[in-house]
Amino acid sequence: MNILIYDDNIEVAQNLKNNINQLYPEAKIKTFDSRTAIEKAITRKTFPIVILDIMVENRPLGIEISNAIYKKNPVVPIIFYSGYSTNLYNVYDSKQHIYFLEKPFDKLKMRKAFQKAIEQIDNNMFWFQFAAVTKRIPFNQIYAFESQDRRIIIHLTSEKIKNDSENKQEKKTLIETQNTLYFYKKLNDVEKEINYRFIRTSKSILINPEYITQIKGNMVFIEFKRNENDKETQKTNYVITRSYLKKVQNNELLMGKY
Predict the structure, then answer these.
(1) For residue range 218-227, what is the model confidence (pLDDT) as tens digits?
(2) Domain of 24?
(3) Which of 83, 98, 107, 197 could cross-link 103 (Cys pair, CB 3.0–4.6 Å)?
C-alpha cells in the first residue's frame, strides 16, 4: 500500500506517518510539504492513497490540491484531516474525498478511512488470472476488451506494462505487445464482472466510455495518450454492429457526453 501525506508542518506529517505504520507496518509512506512535489508524484499510472491537511497558510489549500490530483487521476482516494471540525464542510468542495479525520487522530476512524480507500482502489481495478497468477490493471488504462477465439485481448492506453512476475516464460506469453495483454474468458462474463461499465459495440468488443470522443452513424471514435507527456494523441475507431446500435445510442454511460 502506497500512501502520500501532505502537510506544511513536518512534525504533524511524521506523527501521522507513525500512526499509520502502527496500523499498516508494510505501508510505503512518503511525506510532502510542497504542493508542487505531491502533485508531481501523482500520475494516471499510480494509485496511492493521498492524505491532505485541509488548511494550509490560512486557506483550504488541501482542497485545491485534491482537485488538481483529480484532473490527473480521478480515481485516487483522498483522505482529509484537520484540527478543526468546522473544516469538515470544506471537503464538499473536493471531487473525490472519501473520509475526514479530525486531530488528534483516532486509530479506529483511521482504519475505517483506509478500508474505504482500499475498497475504492480495488473497485477501479480489473482483476484477471493468467497462468494461475492474479493480475490487476486500472480501468483507466484500458480502452477496450476484444474477444478473439477463446481469448480476451486487453487493449491498453499505457505505453508499457510492468509485469512483476519472476517467471520469464509467463512474461513471454502474457505480454503480446507493449500495449496488449490477453487471458482466457468469455466476453459476456467480462462484461458482467465489470458491472457493465464498458460499452458493448459488437459481439467481440467492449469499449471504455472515458475514451469515446464521438459516435457518428455506426462508428465509435476513440482518442487517448500513451502517457501524460505525449503530445501525440492516439486515435482509433470501431464499428457498431446493427444489433448493438440502439443500445449504444441509449447507453446511460454516454448521456451528456456529447
Answers:
(1) 999 999 887 7
(2) 2-123
(3) 83
What's 203's domain CATH number?
Answer: 2.40.50.1020
Rounded Cα distance between 65 and 5, Å, is: 12
DSSP 255: T
Q: How many independent structural domains does the chain possess?
A: 2
- Of the residues 123, 151, 176, which one is the last residue of a structural domain? 123
Specify the pTM. Answer: 0.73
User: Residue 38: how many CA atoms within 13 Å on its side-chain side?
Assistant: 30
Task: Output the CA–CA distances (angstroms, integers) from residue 179 to 68, 118, 176, 228, in the order listed.
Answer: 28, 27, 8, 16
Tell me the pLDDT tens digit for each residue of 188-220.
Answer: 999 999 999 999 999 999 999 999 999 999 999
Decide the pairing of beta strands 78-82 and 97-102.
parallel
Do 168 and 111 share a domain, yes or no?
A: no
Residues 6+ apart with CB under 8 A from 129: 135, 183
